[in-house]
Amino acid sequence: MATRSNKSKYNDELDENPGQKMLKSLGLWQVSGALLISSVAFLIAGLHGGLSALAGSAAVWMGGLLAMLSMRAAKRNKNKDAGAALLVLLRAEAIKIVVIALLLLGIFKIYKPGLVPLALVAGLAVAALLSGVGISRAGEEQE
To answer: Tell me, what DSSP letter sits at residue 112?
Structure first.
């Protein structure tokens, strides 16, 4: 029995593909950055500052997540043409931008009385920058 559980554990480690590792690394970078900027905004501007920074980070995270899901769905298409790959990437970026814009519009409309715009933009910027860092770091770990 003990060897079977060890073998199962070993197979689970092998089954984790590089995309899942990259997603975990990216998520770790974005979550840690969001918590850091939200904490700083909380210390400077209070509760509304922290929540505003967290909302900005969440908008970027949700946009990236939906873009990734759209790319995963398009990956099922067996067309290996470079033009098709470019269209998939462009569509994913368009989805990400539209989702972020709509979420920010919703945040501005719903959270208008307590919103701290500078904290919102700081959270947005940190999450966007750290998504690039997370992807590049995950690429280094795969090599």
So the answer is: T
Q: pTM for the complete prediction?
A: 0.74
CA distance 57 to 34: 6
Distance (Å, whole) CA 30 – CA 20 = 15
- Residue 14 pLDDT: 44
114 burial type by CB count under 10 A (0-12 exposed, 13-18 middle, 19+ buried):
exposed
Among all chains, which residue has been given the structure tokens 């208008």? 112
CB atoms within 10 A of CB 133: 14
Mean pLDDT of 13-19: 53
Taking 60 as the threshold, does the pLDDT of residue 9 lie above it?
no
| Backbone phi, psi, residue 142, to 5° | -75, -25
Q: Where are the domains of the chain?
A: 19-142
